[in-house]
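Before a colleague's protein record goes any further, I have to sign it off. What it holds is a sequence and that sequence's fold in token form. My question to you is simply how this chain folds and whether the tokens agree. Thanks in advance; the entry in question is below:
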Amino acid sequence: MGLSGHTSLNYQFAPDDPAYPHPLDHLFTLYLLDRATGQAIWQSTIVPAEEQQNAVVLGADAKFIYVASITSNSLSRSSGPVVQLLAVDQATGNIEWRIFGPHESNTVSPDFGKLLLQGRTVFWQVTKTITALDTTLGQVQWRQLLEEENAQIMPQEEAQMAETADVLLVERSDFFYALDPSTGNKLWDLPNPGAGTSEFDAGIVAVRNIFLIYGGGILQAIDPHDQHIIWSQKQQNAIQSLKISNDGTMVYVVLLNNIDGTGPTQLLTAFDDLRDAVVKE
């Protein structure tokens, strides 16, 4: 699947040259391709030319492809640009429903947000707001605003969502906030171990029934039931990312270290004690 743009004006522009940008009134078309042959199964115009905006694919599940776009032709009674989430039926290419999100600023780059797909529910975080959506009905279940003082790191934070043990954990530069996935109500919070550091490196991963959170060179396993720290690993280096093995027993951590003094170098570290550290259900 992909997005393409087509100009409706007769200007002569050098193709794909940043010195000659294309005009804004594009037709944005979504294509679904056969994986084996590359042939188009269908194509569908997602954002009409009159809206004069951009669009990105945020994710997909078994039924829908989720596309976010910024629209100035809003049905949300807004006087300014608004971000919207579209659910495109994978079988037909038709837009099944659309949800309008927060207002966008004209002075910053577009913020399309990030998705966390959890079965029938999708959590969409954009511009400091988390929205829970029922994908079958195409309806908003709840919205929750979590403020962030550092607007520059907000695009990085939007992807930091995880759910396990009936808890949705969302990251901010000062705290990790636990929300009830069914209502959006705040349950508890934990200080972000990366708070006050010079570089933003915090993140969340859910595995089985624990949360792994990292920041400021600290990796911690948290029990979502009583918030106690199951175990903690202190690293001297910045943690860039974290992955769990397919069997859920290993933690792979990418560290950024200055080994020889010439510049930052990425290191891969594996922890094999996750099996015994996981809280028993």
Observations:
- Residues 2-26 have pLDDT under 50 and may be disordered.
- The chain has two domains: 1-110, 153-281.
- Residues 1-110 form a domain with the Thrombin, subunit H fold (CATH 2.40.10.480).
- The chain is about 5% helix and 50% strand.
